[in-house]
Amino acid sequence: MIPVTEFRQFTEQQPAFRVLKPWWDVFTDYLSVAMLMIGVFGCTLQVMQDKIICLPKRVQPTQNHSSVSNVSQAVISTTPLPPPKPSPTNPTTVEMKGLKTDLDLQQYSFINQICYERALHWYAKYFPYLVLIHTLVFMVCSNFWFKFPGSSSKIEHFISILGKCFDSPWTTRALSEVSGEDSEEKDNRKSNMNRTNAIQSGPEGSLINSQSLKSIPEKFVVDKSTAGALDKKEGEQAKALFEKVKKFRLHVEEGDILYAMYVRQTVLKVIKFLIIIAYNSALVSEVQFTVDCDIDIQDMTGYKNFSCNHTMAHLFSKLSFCYLCFVSIYGLTCLYTLYWLFYRSLREYSFEYVRQETGIDDIPDVKNDFAFMLHMIDQYDPLYSKRFAVFLSEVSENKLKQLNLNNEWTPDKLRQKLQMNAHNRLELPLIMLSGLPDTVFEITELQSLKLEIIKNVMIPATIAQLDNLQELSLHQCSVKIHSAALSFLKENLKVLSVKFDDIRELPPWMYNLRNLEELYLVGSLSHDISKNVTLESLRDLKSLKILSIKSNISKIPQAVVDVSSHLQKMCIHNDGTKLVMLNNLKKMTNLTELELVRCDLERIPHAVFSLLSLQELDLKENNLKSIEEIMSFQHLRKLTVLKLWYNSITYIPEHIKKLTSLERLFFSHNKVEVLPSHLFLCNKIRYLDLSYNDIRFIPPEIGVLQSLHYFSITCNKVESLPDELYFCKKLKTLKIGKNSLSVLSPKIGNLLFLSYLDIKGNHFEVLPPELGDCRALKRAGLVVEDALFETLPSDVREQMKAE
């Protein structure tokens, strides 16, 4: 016989594909094997045994009945019958008698063959071959979607990812960490506890209790710290799996070729089943044991009527009925498959039961071929879908990232990055990480935390361990926060800095920080920001004292006005966008510092003159050309710092003398040519910066400024310095570089507190030895050409070089 294994190539697929074969496909595969055995058995009999045996028939004469036997013998035999042989002498011997045809073996073979071809019904001849062909077609149809190029690649990729997800150590750990104990374990533990309590209530409870504890499964006493261990390599493999699952999902959800292919092959099997049942039921009766063969071959054999025996008719008849039973069962199974395909929505798959069972609420539902394969997997084992779902969850992915992050950033490594920031706080900067390491919260001495370009930051409740934390900086980060962590920040956080590209990156929880004192916002906002709902919530920041907005606003937000009662410093850096409608400034009566930088202001806003508590005004990088309004500053009796630098101011009006409380004046990077003597009537000035202008002459009235500590006229056109300058004996910093000076007065020795002197870029030929009298001046604080420094006496040079 032909072994069945020879036909394995028609149905062979990878063993892993079995997970996509539901019970009905497995059942029909076994039915196909049974039908294949019927076909192979019938074909083997056809080859191994005689197909048909034929004998010639006598022709019945038309004479009367008295001479029927004699005449019939004469007709059948073409030659006269031989005379009867004499009876044997032995009475015990029986003579064998029969009809003789005088046909040889070749003639019988010829008759058998021609009767088989012409007289036997085609169904009786080809029944085993039909069974074999139909069965092979069934097998091909059942497994075609595993072989078709458009579908097999998706299936192979899916099976590969599925196996890795199922075997990944992260799957077990994620289910335990994200969802806690498995529900089955909970039920088992509960039943064990109930059973234990019931046993303990008995009279021999203590003894039986010790025995029952031994019967508890070992999984309930495994140390979680060792069971959930995940090394770095396993973590990286799990991370790669998450990326593969994402890409595979995007690719597979685009179409439904797998679903369509499976439906088509099932429909084809049903149609073929109906055809087989129809014609087999009609033709099975044609398989007969006796067949009459009437063919005109009398010239070759002497006969034309034959009676034939189909040797395998009885067996084929039984096999055909058995085959019809198998086909019927096969067809009914296919009909059930069609019902399953069309009754259920197989192009959509919901993980609702997984979400309920595991507690992972963010597992998304899937569609199209992805959904169909998961439905097929559920028919094999629903556990596959449950474990696969772990890699569709962002919560699970974030947990994995967090674990890898904690392994990479140990507390010791983080402590190496600690530094002091501009606010003199111990700061930890973290830039471009995949998340926020939990190990950060082990550094209890931390005062400031700076997070930059970190997506999906989750601030946990463990931030409460940072007792000294007062400052938080979020630069281009999307941050979520635990409720307990928010409570901690409400009480402890004093400074918050947020830099963003999109206003949606502003953390909504920042408006609840009731003890927040300083808020810095850097990013692009709407021009009509006053209507922005998010910033209107600033009114809840009752402790806010400093507000800095670096953006592109066109007017001061109403939200800022709402906190004006306690706001002390406001900074608006507007990136060149024109700031209009500044009347709201009048309401900020407690404002002590105001910065309006790059706001495209052409004049000093009149609303500023209403800020009677104002101490510092900065109008840097605007478009100011005239400051005649400066006379109104006389009402600002507390104004001590005035910054009008980086503008286009051409002159300083005489009214500046009315700013009697002025201590610091920044006038650099303008176009001033003449210094009015009235400027020096502001005798409280300690800091005067007139660098980068077109000044040619310094009035001698500068000697009135006895409190002057800092004086700079760098990069002007000054040709000489008045001797009165050296009356300013408290001067510590003097910058006169890049001018047209040719002589440095020996009176410079009167500046005993001078520690920084910039004279580089002038026309000096020698330096006065009196520089040695400036005991605080060292070589590092003297900015001068090396050749010019060598003109000093050697003892002066050595004095300056000495530490």
UniProtKB/TrEMBL annotation:
Residues 191-200 have a biased composition (Polar residues). GO terms for cellular component: endoplasmic reticulum membrane; monoatomic ion channel complex; plasma membrane. It comes from the Eukaryota. It catalyses: chloride(in) = chloride(out); taurine(out) = taurine(in); 2',3'-cGAMP(out) = 2',3'-cGAMP(in); iodide(out) = iodide(in). InterPro entries: Leu-rich_rpt (IPR001611), Leu-rich_rpt_typical-subtyp (IPR003591), LRR_dom_sf (IPR032675), LRR_domain-containing (IPR050216), LRRC8_Pannexin-like (IPR021040). Signal peptide: none annotated. GO terms for molecular function: volume-sensitive anion channel activity. Pfam families: LRR_8 (PF13855), Pannexin_like (PF12534). Keywords: Cell membrane, Disulfide bond, Endoplasmic reticulum, Ion channel, Ion transport, Leucine-rich repeat, Membrane, Phosphoprotein, Repeat, Transmembrane, Transmembrane helix, Transport. Residues 177-209 are annotated as: Disordered. It is found in: Cell membrane; Endoplasmic reticulum membrane. The chain crosses the membrane at residues 30-48, 126-146, 315-342. It is a multi-pass membrane protein. Gene3D superfamilies: Ribonuclease Inhibitor. Belongs to the LRRC8 family. PANTHER family: PTHR48051, VOLUME-REGULATED ANION CHANNEL SUBUNIT LRRC8E. Heterohexamer; oligomerizes with other LRRC8 proteins (LRRC8A, LRRC8B, LRRC8D and/or LRRC8E) to form a heterohexamer. Homoheptamer; inactive, likely because it is not targeted to the plasma membrane in the absence of LRRC8A. In vivo, the subunit composition may depend primarily on expression levels, and heterooligomeric channels containing various proportions of the different LRRC8 proteins may coexist. This is Volume-regulated anion channel subunit LRRC8C. The lineage of its organism: Eukaryota, Metazoa, Chordata, Craniata, Vertebrata.
